[in-house]
Amino acid sequence: MLVGTVMRKIKSRTWKKQRYFKLQEDCMTIWYKSKKAGNTHSTFSVSDVEAIREGHQSEVLLSIADEFPADRCFTLVFRGRRGNLDLVAESTEEAQSWIKGMKKLIENLENMGESEKRDQWIGDWFKKADKNNDGRMNFKEVRDLLKMMNVDMNEHHAHRLFTMADKSQSGTLEDDEFVLFYKMLTQREDVLRVFQAYSSDGQKLSQSNLEDFLREEQLEGDDTQQHAKQLIECYEPSDTAKLLNAMTFDGFLMYLGSAEGSIFNPQRRGVFQDMSQPLCHYFISSSHNTYLMEDQLRGQSSVEGYIRALNRGCRCVEVDCWDGASGEPIVYHGHTLTSKILFKDVVNAVGNYAFKVSEYPVILSIENHCNVEQQRVMAQHLSNILGDKLLKSTLDGKAPIGLPSPEDLKGKILVKAKKIGGLEDAFNGMVEDSLTGEVSDEDEAAEMDEDNLHRESKSKQRLSKELSDCVVYCKSVHFSSFKHSRIHSKFYEVASFTESKARKHLREAGAEFVHHNSRQLTRVYPTGFRTDSSNFNPQEMWNAGCQIVALNFQTAGEGMDLNDGLFSQNSRCGYVLKPDFMREAEKRFDPETPQQRDHYQPVVLTIQVISGQQLPKVNIKEGSIVDPLVRVEIHGVPMDQAKQETRYIENNGFNPVWYDTLRFTIHTPELALVRFVVEDYDKTSKNDFVGQYTLPLSCMQQGYRHIHLLSRDGTSIPPSSLFVHIRVTELE
């Protein structure tokens, strides 16, 4: 890789061009250029690459599979919403050395400690700023670099630091001198204040100083002695301090910047919830129009949409099926100009990616617009491609009495669609042997008309027995009323609502809705008027206990931030257990009146926003620096919805300091999500988004914590962070 390799970059069946790829000396940057285009070249960092897929594992490479053998093909998948890079090497050996090499480099990155990451980051900046590539930086280059890093520093102060760091007095900074300059620049006064408050001698924290800090500030009740020992062992860089069982300021800063010092409680990272309750007792990460990569009118349909959603922990994907040419069903957004993909390619992708990040079940939500013949083809593809993964009968082969649990259904793919008759019929020998049956025809398109004109005549749809038999625990039905459901509905029936219908039911009968959802599954999806694929706020629907709240995963913004926030716990497995008062049928919880429930205990959340670190530059304009403010939003039951902001700090995205305190009263803490948003204040127009982080209140650690910010599309932007102090107390 260091020597460099010529490979073909493929964009389509017709666009295949040779490019020269080379790994730079830093083993972190990949540089490539076209063979003829003069000296223009492109680079990307290994840290931008999320995964490597071998063989024909993307639509582009599948389309040229007949031309290039799989063992020479591979795909680099980037983080966020950046497109894949599809490559074909000249030989199998060359392909293998790039595939293995990239995997190794990514693995090394993932195993990097905090301090290595920081040095890595500093090195990247150094390379960017060293315009003439002489391995040293003069004062002008340093000044330009500070602008790039979002630092507005007066010339005098910058020059003083420059001279102090220039140990060799050469008028330039070389590698380690630049690291020293950076460390002086990023001196954390805010953390030093905390350190000195707990240090007996102002130089170090003895083990007992550290125990006091863990007990009094971080509110760690359990074995603080043991924990203090571990922290010193893990984060203290100085061996001398380790021998004294003490922690220096550097070690303290390392601890506070690590995963343990972050706001998210590490004990809630893995699977910690009971996974053996019925499916309807969980919120389920769900996607809408999964096949779309952009908007709903002209967007690109793509198998990639399924792979990305499943790799984000999504457990319910949507498949819109229509009759295709030569007897092969296709998937696209009907009656629009979105492109079309084959149903069998979607099923293949789901089979391959369903259980890569979570072993819990995946639900295929099928919108079926196909004729009976093509429905048979769909059933064949499901059976042939998915094999044992497809759930074709009840788990124990007996007539069931309730929904199985995520634990029971590990590794299984469930089909949610129309079904002829009921689940019991199969056990009473009731199903006739006819090959088709009739079901009423409702779908999202019809729902759209219904919101406008009440269509009285319900059309009938023919359903093939084979496809009907693929439906076990998720039979799609039309919803009439909560009363009707209470008396007639079966636990395996799933009703779907547009967001507007769901809101109407919520307002008119919140407690009824919660009760309904303690017994069966409900799916809510965005109204068809959102042709830009925007999202509604899913929190409203979770407040009513709706499990399958389908969002456009392809659209970044508040809706997806909340979804990522809720599902960031429990190993990101896509299932989160609902609070007990929403699971027990006899408890009448109404999200509108949370104070009426048993064991009602509101809390007060106090957040001191102390400082920000190295916020990303949002405005590309030359010389513009961020004026950051922090907004904290509470998303929960209606009484808990709230937002408060800090002041904005002028011209400092590098190390702004606020010390502003925000207070919230929260009536249903079990349902609350907390979203931290950093914006660039602009008095004349809308503030620019800088970064955000969302998490469940129940997963928050108290005390002094760092919040590692995410970009608009949910990827991390190290080393951007906020430093805060958190307290949660019961309201007296």
TrEMBL record:
One of its GO terms (molecular function) is phosphatidylinositol-4,5-bisphosphate phospholipase C activity. It is a peripheral membrane protein. Its EC number is 3.1.4.11. It is found in: Cytoplasm; Endoplasmic reticulum; Membrane; Nucleus. GO terms for biological process: intracellular signal transduction; lipid catabolic process. InterPro entries: C2_dom (IPR000008), C2_domain_sf (IPR035892), EF-hand-dom_pair (IPR011992), EF_Hand_1_Ca_BS (IPR018247), EF_hand_dom (IPR002048), PH-like_dom_sf (IPR011993), PH_domain (IPR001849), PI-PLC_fam (IPR001192). Residues 439-450 have a biased composition (Acidic residues). Residues 467-583 form the PI-PLC Y-box domain. Its cofactor is Ca(2+). The keyword Calcium applies. Residues 1-107 form the PH domain. GO terms for cellular component: endoplasmic reticulum; nucleus; plasma membrane. This is Phosphoinositide phospholipase C. It comes from Stegastes partitus. The lineage of its organism: Eukaryota, Metazoa, Chordata, Craniata, Vertebrata. The gene is plcd4a.
